[in-house]
Design a protein that fits this description.
Layout (H helix, E strand, L loop, with lengths): L5 H11 L3 E5 L3 H13 L4 E6 H7 L1 H14 L4 E8 L2 H10 L3 E4 L6 H17 L3 E6 L11 H7 L3 H11 L3 E4 L18 H11 L3 E3 L7 H9 L12 H9 L2 E6 L1 H17 L6 H23 L11
Parallel strand pairs: 1-2, 1-8, 2-3, 3-4, 4-5, 5-6, 7-8
Helix pairs in contact: 2-4, 2-13, 3-4, 6-8, 8-9, 10-12, 12-13
The chain binds glyceraldehyde-3-phosphate (G3H), 1,3-dihydroxyacetonephosphate (13P) and zinc ion.
The site of 1,3-dihydroxyacetonephosphate (13P) has 13 residues, from β3 and β8.
Length: 312
């Protein structure tokens, strides 16, 4: 159906009380696995490319691959820049075919974050591109040694209210206790759901959860069974994600779980068949496993069978 904006996808999700998966892609097989999973579940998708992914695969390849994928499927898809920091990259995405960009100025003081985000919103909205911004720093709750540190890191609801009012962003990623990668929690895995509830009450717009991979046990088991070393990996428990969606999360960022699926599948093929050297036999099973992960996420996030709700 062609690419749609992030705003179109997320406003439908906000209205319907569900979340859409934003999946990071770095190459053709990951993209194909994600799109196959979304298509089989009739679920809208946000295809995320980080600055690192753009550097790895090449800007033109990313745009061409994702446009082609969108043209071949009936589900609505957005192409989104994940964690945009470099103004040159952000501008190129806005002008070069992305339908959504994230400006991540969360490392800056509030005033500067507002200033940088406002500039991106102005440029992006003039081109019909949606904008996500981040407020607060992503760190696991258990990593915080004091209440003061926790307050300094997690998003303050009053800051979120001011930030959204002054910047005009389309969606906001607050920090509520998640972190990126496969090692998210040392102790109990939990999110600050009270904070999330208060933020949603004050801002109303679609909210985004970064660092939301669940690190599925069965995939982790495969990775370790076939020689990987990831013993203490721990993700966000699926029931915490469900609660977060019920409280207003509408976009769930998932990269680590796709990386784990690819790693598990590739390790298994190479171990089970020591003579294999055909890349299609090595990467094909990884693509299949990624599609399965995306299908499970669509059910968990509530986005399955919601494709028709976007733009209707
Ligand atoms: O949040 C970061 C995403 O997982 C992308 O990671 O910058 O290594 O591509 P990357
Ligand atoms: P995970 O590392 O939990 O998959 O988070 C990905 C992410 O937030 C991308 O922006
Ligand atoms: Zn992120």
């Amino acid at each position: 159906m062609g690419l749609v904006t992030g705003k179109e996808i997320l406003e439908a999700a906000n209205g319907g009380g569900y979340a859409v998966g934003a999946f990071n892609i770095n190459n053709l097989e990951i993209l194909q696995g994600v799109v196959r999973g979304g298509t089989e579940m009739n679920a809208p998708l946000i295809i995320a490319a980080s600055e690192g992914a753009i550097e790895y695969a090449g800007f033109d390849y990313i745009v061409a691959m994702v446009r082609t994928a969108a043209g071949l499927t009936s589900i609505p898809m957005a192409l989104h820049l994940d964690h945009g920091r470099d103004p040159k990259v952000i501008t190129r995405c806005i002008q070069g075919g992305f339908t959504s960009v994230m400006i991540d100025a969360s490392h800056l003081p509030l005033e500067d974050n507002i200033k940088e985000t406002k500039q991106v919103v102005k440029l992006a909205h003039a081109e019909g591109v949606s904008v996500e911004a981040e407020l607060g720093r992503l760190r696991g709750i258990e990593d915080m040694i004091s209440v003061d540190e926790r307050e300094a890191t997690l998003t303050k609801p009053e800051d979120a209210e001011r930030f959204v009012a002054e910047t005009g962003v389309d969606s906001l990623a607050p920090a509520i206790g998640t972190s990126h990668g496969a090692f998210k929690f040392k102790g109990e895995a939990k999110l600050d759901l009270e904070r999330l509830k208060e933020i949603k009450k004050r801002v109303g717009i679609p909210l985004v959860l970064h660092g939301a991979s669940t690190v599925p046990q069965e995939i982790l088991k495969l990775v370790t069974q076939y020689g990987g070393e990831m013993q203490d990996a721990k993700g966000v428990p699926p029931d915490q994600l469900k609660k977060a969606i019920a409280l207003g999360i509408n976009k769930i960022n998932t990269d680590t779980d796709l990386r784990l699926a690819l790693t598990a599948a590739v390790r298994r093929v190479l171990t089970d068949d020591r003579k294999v050297f055909d890349p299609r036999k090595i990467l094909g099973p990884a693509r299949d496993m990624i599609a399965e992960v995306v299908k499970e996420k669509a059910t968990l996030f509530g986005s399955a069978h919601k494709a028709q709700e976007v733009r209707s």
